[in-house]
Amino acid sequence: MNPQLLITVRNIKVSSLWYQAVLGCQSGHGGSEYERLVLNGSDDHVAPPLGYA
Predict the structure, then answer these.
(1) Predicted local distance difference test score (pLDDT) of residue 45
(2) Between vectors from CA 51 to CA 46 and to CA 53, what angle results, nearest 5°?
(3) Neighbour tally for 1: CB within 10 Å
């Protein structure tokens, strides 16, 4: 098992949209409490998951 970093943010939707614009990635799992960003639909994360702060 590998540990995963979680970035906590105040607004997941806004933060997700910013990361998507900057990194050119897409939402792999969106929601009000958790987001996972992926590149080209791959299961490989391009950024640590975003969690509610």
Answers:
(1) 57
(2) 140
(3) 3
Residue 28 · residue 19 · CB < 8 Å: no
Q: φ, ψ for residue 23 (rounded to 5)?
A: -95, -10
- The span from the CA of 26 to the CA of 38, in Å, is 5
Domain enclosing residue 14, as ranges:
7-52
Three-state secondary structure call for residue 23: helix
The pLDDT of residue 51 is 63
pTM for the whole structure: 0.69
**Would residue 29 count as lying in a domain?**
yes
